Every structure is written in C-alpha cells, then in structure tokens.
Amino acid sequence: GLNYGYLRSDFDEFMILGVDEANNRSPTFAPRNTLGVVIDGVMARTSNGVLHATVDYRYTSSFNMYAYPTTQVTPPSQLAANSVISSYTVNGRIAFSDMNWGHDIQGEVELWGNNLTDNEHINLIVDFGPSFGNLRSVNYNDPRTYGVTVTARW
C-alpha cells in the first residue's frame, strides 16, 4: 500500500493583544509531507503453514512545535526555529502462521523488528522559552527493537 499526504497550513487570524499576527506565526504540528509505504505478502504456503512478510516505511517532514513568531518582534521573543526535523522509520515482520499444533490449536511464530535502521529523531520538544533560559525537554523515538512473538489460538 501507498499513502501520501500534503498539507499547506497557514493561520487566517492569530490575535495577540488586539494585533493580528497571522503572517508572523508558524502553524504547529503540521508537517508539509507525510508518506507511508507497506509491502506485504505471502512468501510461501506449505502443508505446515504460511510464511508471511511485511515491511513498512513511514516518513514525516519537519514541523514546528509552537506558534512562535517567524520574524523577530519587539520585545525579543522565541523565534520559530524550534522545529522537529523530518524523520523516517522502517519496520519489518516475518511470520510463520496457520500452523496446526494439534487439538484444534493454531499457532504463529513471528520475528519482528521496529526502527530497523536505528534512526534517531525527536518526537516531542517542550520549550520553556526565554523566560526560563530557553530550557528544553526533548523526547526521542524508540531505538531499534526486535523480538519473537509466539501465539496460540484455540
């Protein structure tokens, strides 16, 4: 599957103390581009079960976390340079399913991995602004993780 999203975001009005700042504010949590690609298929069918594989890729372009000014104002304030940079993630899964384990029990063994490229990116920034010395708290995505899942259905 393929999914692409394009977003053009601007403020129609952004009133601060009776002044419309719409042309000097950055919309928040509004990435211009997003993309998702999923490749999913059956690799083999045997008398013992089905081998199935899935790979997915997700991309998000950069976006601003706060509606700070885009140009300097008086008195000086935080500028909209506080954005989350573009990021991508690749995940994968290989499973052997529909295995008959006897006594009406169906089984599946799955090997999976998330963030296979171990790409590090920021998920969230909390910026306390100039009043607190531009202190920032940052949350990152999960590192590469992998595992095995065994499932029995009866």
What's a concise summary of this model?
The chain has 154 residues and is mainly beta. Helix content is 0%, strand content 53%. The strands form four sheets. It has a six-stranded antiparallel sheet with strand order 1-4-5-8-9-12, with no helix packed on it. The chain has a two-stranded antiparallel sheet with strand order 2-3. Strands 6-7 form a two-stranded antiparallel ribbon.
How does this structure look, described?
This protein is mainly β and 154 residues long. Helices cover 0% and strands 53% of the residues. The strands form 4 sheets. Strands 1-4-5-8-9-12 form a 6-stranded antiparallel β-sheet, with no helix packed on it. The two termini are 31 Å apart.
| Strand residue content | over 45%
Tally of individual helices: 0
Q: In terms of per-residue confidence, which ranges show pLDDT below 50 for 5 or more consecutive residues? A: none
Largest β sheet strand count, sense and barrel closure: 6 strands, antiparallel
Q: How would you name the oligomeric state of the polypeptide chains in this document? A: single chain
**Gyration radius over CA:** 23 Å
Order of helices and strands: EEEEEEEEEEEE
Structural class by helix and strand composition: mainly beta
Number of strands: 12
Using the alpha-carbon principal axes, give the shape. elongated
Helix content: under 10%
Strand order of the largest sheet: 1-4-5-8-9-12
Report mean pLDDT, rounded to a whole number: 89
- What is the terminal separation in angstroms? 31 Å
